[in-house]
Write a structure and sequence with these properties.
alpha/beta, Rossmann fold, 2 domains, 8-stranded mixed beta sheet, 12 helices, 8 strands, 44% helix, 18% strand, Alpha/beta fold hydrolase
Length: 259
């Protein structure tokens, strides 16, 4: 990472930026770092200053304890201050939940775009989330980082055979390294249900985007975000999944952030 800023609790937050113009901060989801979302800078940097950063507990950023979602909001506040005092936010998956929470917290955010935040629209989703939280907490407390990663991959719907294949892959040690941050994303998602009252308090335009061939529940959750915030817009990208192509998403974000 090229630079760092210091959050309110003294945690060093590493980031890099490219391009010039209004600032756009990219917020990664679970099991990822700033490098995961950095490819989006390519289609955006000709119009915006695009900032990607390592969320606390991963990459080059620090990890001051104890963790709280409020600390991650403060991390974004420090980043916004470092890049000029105002920014638009883009968040993918649970990173989208963090971006929405930052806007609801009153940070100087002018727009928020999110991609497939995995909120549950119905009460049944809260039960699955509670079971995941319990098992994740236990695995991390016992130092079973590999098991924690497996739990997350199962939550995403990955097939068992693929999970076991991933465990034998060269990328697995890196996943275990940042496994403790799974608890942070779990905290950001709360009980897993769509936080209707919190979303209704957001006073800036929100773009909620989903992949056209993603599971139906994901499209429904994304549409619900757009319908719950006062200034929400829903978009579906034909042929895209949760692993959205930057070249497809980038122009959509550029149009929204440039409005």
């Amino acid at each position: 990472m090229d630079k760092n800023t210091i959050s309110h609790d003294g945690t060093s937050i590493a980031y890099q930026s490219s391009g010039q113009g209004p600032a756009v901060i990219l917020v990664s989801g679970a099991m990822s770092t700033g490098a995961t979302v950095a490819p989006l800078a390519v289609p955006l940097a000709d119009r915006f200053r695009v900032v990607s950063y390592d969320r606390r507990g991963r990459g080059e950023s620090g990890d001051t304890q104890p963790y709280a979602v409020e600390r991650e909001v403060e991390d974004l506040a420090a980043l916004i201050e470092a890049v000029g005092g105002e920014a638009a936010l883009y968040g993918v998956s649970s990173g989208g939940a963090l971006a929405l929470e930052a806007a609801a917290s009153g940070l100087p955010v002018r727009q928020v775009a999110v991609y497939e935040v995995p909120f549950a629209v119905y009460e049944g989703g809260a039960k699955e989330r509670a079971e995941y939280t319990e098992r994740l907490t236990e695995a991390l407390a016992e130092g079973r980082r590999g098991d924690a990663v497996e739990l997350f991959l199962r939550l995403t719907g990955m097939a068992e055979q693929m999970i076991q294949g991933a465990r034998q892959s060269p990328m697995w040690p890196g996943l275990e390294t940042i496994a403790p941050s799974l608890a942070y994303d779990d905290a950001v998602m709360g009980d897993g249900l769509l936080p209707r009252d919190r979303l209704a308090s957001i006073g800036v335009p929100v773009l909620a985007v989903a992949g056209g061939v993603s599971p139906a529940w994901m499209l429904e959750a994304t549409r619900a975000v757009a319908e719950t915030v006062p200034e929400g817009t829903y978009r579906s990208l034909e042929g895209q999944t949760h692993m959205v192509e930057p070249d497809v998403l980038g122009p959509v974000l550029a149009e929204f952030f440039g409005a």
